[in-house]
Amino acid sequence: MEKRLSRTEMLFSLGFLFMLVLAVAAFFYGVKVGAEKTETKYQPMKHLQGDANQVTAYQQQDLVSFYHTVFLPQREFQNEWHASLNRLRTGQATNPKSTFKDLEKLASEKYAQAGEAAMPALSPLLVQSQVNALKSLKLFEQAAARMASSANNKQAQLLLKELADDAFYQQAIQHAGLGQQQYYDAMLKWSASMNADIPSDYEMPQVMEIGVWKQLPLTVKNKLMSDQLAARSVLPNYYPQDLSTRVDEFIATGEAARMKIRTVTAVVDLLLGTKAVRSGDFAASKATLYSKELLPQLPFFFPESNS
């Protein structure tokens, strides 16, 4: 037979449940109040942190430091990479395994060298550029190791063909181009901070008429040419300013008009397709074409001051 609760037991049970509900409600109320107090306490700091994340600065000294500590080591490796592959291609190097072993070692050394630099957090493009430079060097090291391990009894031409199709090599080129692109973007932002007439951001439209290009400052042109090289996954032994110079010369000599070329992209395609750009093109024409242009004091813009 089922036993019923007495009146006293019933009241006790209801009172206990009521107190439990009050305790739970008080707990959650306390959590809510505490959270609101904490948020109020740290709101000014949160606001300041948000503002700090939006502040960026690109000082010339940072651009120069990046050049010597990150960009130059990577460029030295790329120059040796080009020279070594050319020796293999022309038969001047007869031991492909040794050549790729040397490149593997050099990539490792330059990776360590470029990794020592500490880029300022207020210059995020330089931070990102360093990361991509390091990724590129590590991928070059891995690509060279793969070629060295498969070099036994293979002709140099066959190895070079395998290299062109190697995923590590292709990614190495992509990261190298992206890192260079970010460095030249940082130069553009520096020039904009020095001259209010220069935009801090500029993207090439799908169709850029030659007339528009001719009106652009050199730092904008260089940034656009670094974009073009990165988009094409080109690893040249020249700089974006060399390509800018050849585009300007091609237009200035009337070649573009004679060939009825109307867009900058078409000029770039022609120059790259005919291998008409050389390292040193900018330096050779700087005095006549760019004597009044605003440029950061970097060695590849002012080689005369480093001689």
Write the layout of secondary structure elements.
Layout: H1 7-54, H2 60-90, H3 96-115, H4 124-149, H5 156-164, H6 167-194, H7 210-214, H8 218-231, H9 240-252, H10 255-258, H11 264-273, H12 281-289
Helix pairs in contact: 2-3, 2-4, 2-6, 3-4, 4-6, 6-8, 8-9, 9-11, 9-12
Give the overall silhouette: extended
- Give the helix proportion (percent range): over 70%
Spatial extent as radius of gyration: 30 Å
* Total of helices: 12
Low-confidence stretches: 30-54
- Measure the end-to-end span: 110 Å
Give the helix/strand class: mainly alpha
Estimate what percentage of residues fall within beta strands: under 5%
- Record field, number of beta strands: 0
| Largest β-sheet summary | none
Oligomerization status of the protein chains: single chain
Structural description of this entry:
The protein is an all-alpha fold and 307 residues long. The protein has twelve helices and no strands. It has helices at residues 7-54, 60-90, 96-115, 124-149, 156-164, 167-194, 210-214, 218-231, 240-252, 255-258, 264-273, 281-289. Helix 2 (60-90) packs antiparallel against helix 6. The longest helix has 48 residues, at 7-54. The N and C termini lie far apart (110 Å).
What features would you highlight for this structure?
mainly alpha; 307 residues; 12 helices
Could you provide a short overview of the structure?
With 307 residues, this protein is an all-alpha fold. The protein contains 12 helices and no strands. 71% of the residues lie in helices and 0% in strands.
